[in-house]
Design a protein that fits this description.
Number of strands: 10
CATH architecture of the largest domain: Alpha-Beta Horseshoe
Shape: elongated
CATH class of the largest domain: Alpha Beta
Order of helices and strands: HEEHEEEEEEEEHH
CATH superfamily of the largest domain: Ribonuclease Inhibitor
Number of domains: 2
Strand content: 15-25%
Largest sheet: 8 strands, parallel
Organism: Vibrio tasmaniensis
CATH topology of the largest domain: Leucine-rich repeat, LRR (right-handed beta-alpha superhelix)
Number of helices: 4
Protein name: Leucine-rich repeat domain-containing protein
Helix content: 10-25%
Strand order of the largest sheet: 1-2-3-4-5-6-8-10
Structural class: alpha/beta
C-alpha cells in the first residue's frame, strides 16, 4: 500500500527478538530491538559498526547519547523518549528514517534538519510540539508525520510553516486538532501526493484543497460524511 511505503512500516517478524541487555545482541544482527531497563543500555555504542536499524524503547538522555554513536544507523525508531533534548542525534549522518513517539520533554526538533540524509520523519505524542515552525527547515523530507495517540490528540496551531517543503510527497496528521482549521496552504506543496489526516476542518476546506490539488489522495475528499 502507498501509505506503508511512505510510513516506512516495518515487518517486525523479520527482526530479531527484542532484548534488554547488550550481551544478548548477536554479532550478526544488523537490526536490533532494545528495551532499556535501568542502565542495561550501557555499551550499546560499541556496536557502532554493526547496527543499521534500531528500535529503542524507554530512551533517556544517557541512552540517546549512546545511540548517537551508532554511526551506521539508517533507521531509528524511539518509543517513550524522556530526554529533554534531541541534539545528540545530529551526529547520525546516515540516518534516513526517524520515528519518535511519546516525547514528554524535548522540543528542539529543528536541530534534526541538519541530518543530511533524513527523508522520513514521524513524531507522535510530542507534548510541546504545537507550533510547526521548527519543522520548516526540513527541505529534503519526502514524508512527514506529526500525530497524536489513540487517547490524546496532537494540538497543532497551523500547517502554514510546513506548506513550503519542496520535496514533501506525503503528510500524516492522524489524531490532530488543528487550531486555525486552514488546509488550503498545503496546495503550495509542489510534490504532495498523500494526505492522511484527521477530519479536523470543514468539508468546504477539503473541497477547496481538492480543487487546487486534484491528484492528491485524501480520504475526506470523497467521504467526508461518516
Amino acid at each position: 500500500m502507498i501509505n506503508d511505503k511512505y510510513r516506512c512500516n516495518q515487518n517486525w517478524s523479520e527482526w530479531p527478538r527484542c532484548v534488554t541487555n547488550i550481551n544478548d545482541i548477536e554479532l550478526d544482527w544488523r537490526w536490533v530491538s532494545f528495551y532499556r531497563e535501568g542502565k542495561s543500555h550501557k555499551g550499546i555504542s560499541s556496536f557502532s559498526q554493526q547496527i543499521t536499524r534500531l528500535s529503542a524503547k524507554q530512551v533517556n538522555v544517557e541512552f540517546l547519547s549512546e545511540i548517537a554513536e551508532l554511526q551506521n544507523l539508517e533507521y531509528l525508531e524511539i518509543e517513550r523518549l524522556s530526554s529533554d533534548t534531541l541534539l545528540p542525534l545530529i551526529n547520525l549522518n546516515k540516518l534516513e528514517t526517524l520515528k519518535i513517539s511519546g516525547v514528554s520533554k524535548a522540543e528542539n526538533f529543528e536541530v534534526l534538519a541538519s541530518l543530511p540524509n533524513l527523508r522520513y520523519l514521524f513524531i507522535e505524542g510530542a507534548k510541546k510540539l504545537n507550533n510547526l515552525e521548527c519543522l520548516s527547515g526540513f527541505t529534503e523530507l519526502i514524508s512527514l508525520g506529526v500525530e497524536g495517540t489513540m487517547y490524546t490528540n496532537q494540538k497543532v496551531l497551523s500547517l502554514q510553516p510546513i506548506s513550503t517543503l519542496p520535496n514533501l510527497e506525503a503528510l500524516f496528521l492522524t489524531s490532530v486538532s488543528l487550531t486555525d482549521k486552514s488546509i488550503l496552504c498545503l496546495a503550495d506543496l509542489p510534490k504532495i501526493r498523500v494526505l492522511s489526516c484527521a477530519r479536523f476542518t470543514t468539508k468546504e476546506h477539503f473541497s477547496s484543497l481538492k480543487s487546487k490539488k486534484p491528484n492528491l489522495k485524501c480520504r475526506w475528499f470523497e467521504a467526508y460524511e461518516i
